[in-house]
Design a protein that fits this description.
Elements: E1 3-8, H1 12-23, H2 25-32, E2 36-42, E3 59-60, H3 64-68, E4 72-77, H4 85-94, E5 98-101, H5 104-121, E6 125-126, H6 137-144, E7 150-156, H7 159-171, H8 175-185, H9 193-196, H10 199-213, E8 223-224, H11 232-240, E9 243-254, E10 257-268, E11 280-287, E12 291-298, H12 302-322, E13 350-360, H13 365-375, E14 380-385, E15 393-400, E16 403-404, H14 405-417, E17 421-430
Parallel strand pairs: 1-2, 1-4, 2-3, 4-5, 5-6, 8-10, 10-17
Antiparallel strand pairs: 7-9, 7-11, 9-10, 11-12, 13-15, 13-16, 13-17, 14-15
Helix pairs in contact: 1-12, 4-5, 5-10, 7-8, 13-14
Bound molecules: NADPH dihydro-nicotinamide-adenine-dinucleotide phosphate and L-homoserine.
Amino acid sequence: MSIYIGIIGLGTVGSGTVKILFENQKLIQKRLGCPLLVKKIAVRDPNLPRLVEVPETLLTTDVESIFRDPEIKIVVELIGGLEPARTFILKAIEAGKHVVTANKAVLAEFGKEIFRAAREKGVDIAFEAAVGGGVPIIKTLKESLVGNRIKALTGIVNGTCNYILTRMTEEGLSFAEALKEAQEAGFAEADPSLDIDGLDAAHKLALLTTLAYGTEITLEDIYVEGIREIEPLDLSFARELGFVTKLLAICKDTEEGLEARVHPALIPEAHVLASVRMAYNAFYIKGDAVGDVLLYGLGAGQMPTGSAVVSDIVDLARNVLSGASLRVPPLSFQLSDLQRLPLKPMEEVVSRYYFRFAAVDRPGVLSKIAGILGENEISIAAVIQKGREIGGSVPIVMLTHEAREKAVRRALSAIDELRIVTAPTKILRIEEG
Ligand code: NDP
Ligand code: HSE
């Protein structure tokens, strides 16, 4: 017996997947127990040059032929985007195929419909590559940590942003130069604003929060801030103060409720996530039984992401061989046990803060700013002021002790109204966990 698969999409991830399936065919066969064969690969333009050599006979522009083929048991969706990806996945399910996808966007938007359809049809759906590229975070949450209450999960989940922040911090590259490099390396989304505005990270966090807490969550529930506004000056002040700047995706179970947020943050240089550089991703999980767990690896790119897709394909092929579909619920919880837990509003989140004020350099300025912070019960932990800019405006950097976001917003809107303040205050949260 052989297991046949059909693949839709032969771009970065599709070519990595096919490369692994071809090059490691014998090894995979020894692990699976039977040959795992690619029967069809659907693309838009069969004449385009590819990152992997494939026999012409495998390529088709007729996606429907994959759904119609009774020999194909597993369909792998690797085209990305919402449509026609959603329709292809639903059609594959309807045709009784098990589905593998790397598409976090389609799952974050249409997950409910897709998972329900798969459950009703009795087919499996797997998406390890959708979060963390080659890092096995989905399986870790669904299987390895199944006995734990997840207290917190902090992730560096977007390789493009981590790459940009690393290159800007370490080499002084401009934002545009660093983004161009990330695009050339193939890990930026087709529309890179999804990466830099934090939406890709939010898509991933939506999936992780559901897997960790069994809550139905939509993108609108997640507070999202990207890295577009970050300036080299803040990266260098952060460094001087002993912090590195990362785009973090955080879900946390606090006494006041569940938090889910994506934003840039300063983390101390000694933090376990501080040494996660370039396009690497990492997940720092706190479980009530296991304690701290750290997963680290390449979160994007042809071969690491292909590795995760192949792991899902083999998983589902094993289910096909043993006739044991639906063994592990795709979202870690039984669909009937998913509920909509209330999320803590961002205004109620408590954190330490980094502020950079732009103010005129004149006696009494600092005390005015400090006064407003004090009125809002925001306690200052450190202050630095350096140099004198042209026009007499200077950066004043402050670190605070823990404060509530709503108090911070109130204080900053009053401070930014002051005549001595010459530009909107820059704000970054500090995560120490
Ligand atoms: P690419 O843009 O590199 O590849 C997309 C492929 O899909 C192309 O081969 C394209 O065909 C094909 N395609 C697009 N539309 C259709 C269609 N309607 N019918 C048939 N084929 C179609 O995307 P990636 O490989 O980068 O991404 C794929 C998925 O993986 C996305 O969901 C992405 O979010 C996810 N992902 C990507 C990672 C990465 O590092 N790139 C990492 C983790 C996840 P053609 O070549 O003929 O135009
Ligand atoms: N654009 C994504 C990133 C790809 O940079 O992390 C992996 O999902």
